[in-house]
TrEMBL record:
<dbReference type="InterPro" id="IPR025110">
    <property type="entry name" value="AMP-bd_C"/>
</dbReference>
<keyword id="KW-0436">Ligase</keyword>
<dbReference type="Pfam" id="PF00501">
    <property type="entry name" value="AMP-binding"/>
</dbReference>
<feature type="domain" description="AMP-binding enzyme C-terminal">
    <location>
        <begin position="299"/>
        <end position="370"/>
    </location>
</feature>
<dbReference type="GO" id="GO:0006631">
    <property type="term" value="P:fatty acid metabolic process"/>
</dbReference>
<dbReference type="Pfam" id="PF13193">
    <property type="entry name" value="AMP-binding_C"/>
</dbReference>
<feature type="domain" description="AMP-dependent synthetase/ligase">
    <location>
        <begin position="59"/>
        <end position="248"/>
    </location>
</feature>
<comment type="similarity">
    <text>Belongs to the ATP-dependent AMP-binding enzyme family.</text>
</comment>
<protein>
    <submittedName>
        <fullName>Long-chain fatty acid--CoA ligase</fullName>
    </submittedName>
</protein>
<dbReference type="InterPro" id="IPR045851">
    <property type="entry name" value="AMP-bd_C_sf"/>
</dbReference>
<dbReference type="InterPro" id="IPR042099">
    <property type="entry name" value="ANL_N_sf"/>
</dbReference>
<dbReference type="GO" id="GO:0031956">
    <property type="term" value="F:medium-chain fatty acid-CoA ligase activity"/>
</dbReference>
<dbReference type="InterPro" id="IPR000873">
    <property type="entry name" value="AMP-dep_synth/lig_dom"/>
</dbReference>
Amino acid sequence: MDDPHPGPVTPGRLVPILDPDPVAMVRTILAVREAGGVPLVGDAHWDRAFWQRTAATAAALRPAPHIAWATFSSGSTGAPRIIARSAESWESSFPAVTEAMELHPGDAVLLPAPLASSLSLFSLAHARASGAGILLPRGRTVAGRDLEGATIVHCTPPALATIVTAIEGGAPHGLRTALVGGARLDPALRSRAEALGVRAVSYYGAAELSFVAIDRDGSGLRPFPGVELRVIDDELWVRSPFLADGYLGESRGALRRDAGGWATVGDRAEVDASGRVRLLGRSDGAILTAAATVIPDDVEAALLTIPGIAEAVVFAFPAPGDDSIVAAVVRFDGAPPPELRARAAALLSSSHLPRLWFTVAELPTTASGKPARARIRDDAIAGRMARLG
C-alpha cells in the first residue's frame, strides 16, 4: 500500500487518509483537522485500485473555505461522491448528543464501524470536543475483548447484536449506553441490551442530514432537538442546523434542497399528531445494509462497465434482523467474465460489493421494456434463478 500518511497539510484542502492501523489513522485525522485540512477517510479493506483512483480524484477537488469535514456518501462507486460539511454542522448537535448518551469527560466511546463512515467520524469529533476517549476494535469486527474499558458504544444494530451476545456469553463490560444508528433497532435487541444494563438510544439520520429523529426509550422516533420535520407526498423533509453543504465536484446524490432551507434524501415517512416518526423506506429503492445506504443505480452503473456484463439489476436480499444483503442479477454477453468479483471489487467499496450473485439468460421486463425489478427480486429470493458460485 502507498504511504498512507499525508505530507504538509494545506489549510482548507482535502486530505485523503488511509492506514491499515486504525489508531494511526485516528491520529492522522486529528492532526489534519488541527492543521486546518479537511480529512477524507478511506477504508483499509477497500480494494487498492478503487482507493487509489478515489483518492486521486478527491485530491483534485477544492472545497469551500468553511468546509471542515468530508465523508464518502453511501453511494460511492468508481466516481466518488463526497459529502462536505462545516465544523458547525456537527458541533451544533454535540450538546443534544452528549445529553442523549449521558456522556461525561473521561468516558470511553467504542466505535465498531469503520473510520470511513460518517457515524465514526462524527463520534471522533464529538469525543474530542467532549473530553471522552475513543476505543477501536482490535479486529475487523467487534468482539467481547473490545468491551474492556468502554462505557459508551456508537454502533449499528448488527454490531450491537454482536456485543449483546458477547456479554450474554460472559464477556466483562462496563457499557451503560449504546447509541445506535444506521438501521432500525429491533425491539427484542433493545430489550436484551437493557436487560444487561446497557441503555439503548436509537436514532434515524443520514450522512447528508446528520441527526433527524431519536428514540430514547423504545417508544418511537421523535424529532431530534433542533430539527423540524414535514412530509410532502410521503417524502420526509428536514430543516436543521445539522445539514451538510452538499456534494463536492460534479457528483449528484440523493440530497435535494428547496429555497426555504428544507432538505431530503428521499426517505418516505409518516409523522403522526404527537410527532412520532414512522419510516417507510426509500423512494429510490435504496438498500440499508449495516452502516451503509446503497443506491442500486450506482452499483448497477459500476457493474455495467465490466466487459461481458450486458445487464444488471441490484436489490436487497433479506438477511436476519432488519439488515439486508446487496445482491445482483446479471445477464452476460457470452461467457461470464473471469475474476468477476475481483473486477467488481476494484469498482465498488466493500459495503456496495454484491455478496450474492445470480445470472439469467434474459431479464424479465415490464410492458415498457424496463427490468421487472419486483419479479426479479422475488425470483432470486425464491430460488428460481441460477446462483453464481
